[in-house]
Predict the 3D structure of the following.
Amino acid sequence: MTHSKAQLGGRPVFVVDGARTPFLKARGRPGPFTASDLAVNAARPLLAGQPFQATDLDEVILGCIMPGPDEANIARVVALRLGCGNATPAWTVQRNCGSGMQALDSAVRDIALGQADLVLAGGTEAMSHAPVLFGTAMVAWLGQWTSAKGFASRMQALGKFRPAMLTPVIGLLRGLTDPIVGLSMGQTAEVLAHRFGITREAMDAYAVESHRRLAAAQNEGRLAEVEGMYDWQGKVYEKDEGVRPDSSVEQLAKLSPVFDRPYGKVTAGNSAQVTDGAACLIVASEEAVQAHGLKVMGRIVDSEWAGLDPSQMGLGPVHAVAPLLRRHGLDIDQIAYWEINEAFAAQVLACLVALADEGYCRTELGLSEALGEIPRERLNVDGGGVSLGHPVGTSGARIVLHLLHVLEAHDGQFGVAALCIGGGQGGAMLLERT
């Protein structure tokens, strides 16, 4: 069931500017940047181009679900590294895949209520740095070992050690598995593929098109929000690394299913890539825009968060979009462009089917008719998570930022950014180009 809410009143809220890092593909080892490094690399050039100082920010809010051990309250770490000053508060939010969008929503609310005027908000994630942990048995043994006094106690503790205790707990795999229904996110995509009859061929074709669109956007310079960065060895990173311009349905058809062997349809090729990246936006009140003479990209009109069965979590965008559009008296045809985060090709395709299915909209959303069809030429026009990657805490901020660029490039008025969220939730944000 979706829990709708009244539109948040108060002052209008604008996005002034934004930037993101290139998305770097995880390659089986920790990448060159931690999550805080990535956020600083996104935000530093962004703030350097503004007429105000970093210390003029009222707060910094970042989404992140896997900060490193030296990055507790990572937003505060980033704020201090950016020179925002000791007096600028900062806080971190965690709503799984929706964390970056939640950071923006939190900034919007503070500004709308008059508690802030100028906020840096976004998301960051270094998935390649996800922790590898000891299991409970090993942690208990280490506690016994460190508390043992004297040689005899140490030998007694040592006798209880078993090599199996060293079996690692892979944080990334645990984090991408829902503990309530016992399904990985990929398995929930398989559930949707079965429910809506989505074929392997359709998934692979969607994936190929995602790569084609991202490659075209790179070649034609349509990713102005990407800021290059250097690692400590002086290597430069300028482009998203996951794109495969030569991808084809024939090549993807050779890949084996990952989450439901041997009969499943979801493969590494039609799923979002494990990726490191950050995206930051400057959100401002009308007073701040006027005081600093800021150019405005667009207005964040409203947002919606919804819950649903965790095993169907990929349909979260549908459950969030429906009340958002209804609240503003809009239909699908009035939305110029859409960004739906591509966690899996199957998940996006399932959302498109559900939105256009009268039975689903009537039974699951309580509507009298189908919401309608989103034209593919107005959805994820420059690629998405399948080709870009899906750094979990970042994607919600990235899709909002890029959608604003798309609206500007195509002279569109309204746009909707939406994403599914592990644990059975969905988020959506309504944007208006101003």
Q: What stands out?
A: The chain has a mean pLDDT of 94. The domain at 301-429 is CATH 3.40.47.10 (Peroxisomal Thiolase; Chain A, domain 1). The first strand starts at residue 13 and ends at 20.
